[in-house]
């Protein structure tokens, strides 16, 4: 067994070695942590990763959790399995960070949050796009009131995914049981999270969904009109059928100006004032040129923060509770699409 070398370090393990690869690479670079084990239902995959990173391989989460040197578990399995695993992790007295979405129903999410809270364990949810430099600059301007009264927002994720993408790895993507939805729940959830993070709590949604270009249970195209409690309105578009892919955009407008991003880079920054043009040029120079400001490895940044949170017994930057909000919005859109009517939030768990 590969034991922890430094007792002051956080002993980490990763379950789910698809998206989990990015977590492993971040852990290898991180300070104050040691990767001790990997877990995957596919024995060959687990053993291959274990050999590559010189750690222990498991196919059973329960067996891995018996180790007293593992402090933090990274959950990177299909979304519909998250809470089942999180409850085991909490019961074993370990901290956890899970890939988005936290799970696919509010009832499961609330059970996971409660399980960690009652044991005073830390639970984080990966929403690493929040930590992109341009996103943080945009958020700071909005929170400072520089755009005036919030008025309008547009969030669009116009991606393309092949049928092979949905068929591979057991075909869990685009299923209600494991993915919890389609293009809204899996792909657009990051941008929906940014939308509500910047604009505030949602009052109601009207949504429409359909399957346009794939053989899947769930949607590959979803659109919604969103009303916020502050009176602002927004549109959401999330699709994996926009060949060949047109990226991600987020626009926020207030009574004193607006800011627009494309693929997490600033494209427009127009805020009322005598130096509006000069400020926009400066913002685009700092946060709008991918050569001048290459995208940060924000998965690494968030994982390093989670390690620090465990070591210092504090909440992580993005908690499990914060991972709930975007899922609630997506579920409300699905309910609206099924019922053919406006749906008020909060939803019943």
From TrEMBL:
Record domain Gfo/Idh/MocA-like oxidoreductase N-terminal: where: 12-123
MF terms (GO), sorted A to Z: nucleotide binding
Domain annotation GFO/IDH/MocA-like oxidoreductase: ranges: 136-259
A Pfam match: GFO_IDH_MocA
Record protein name field: Gfo/Idh/MocA family oxidoreductase
Taxonomic lineage: Bacteria, Bacillati, Bacillota, Bacilli, Bacillales
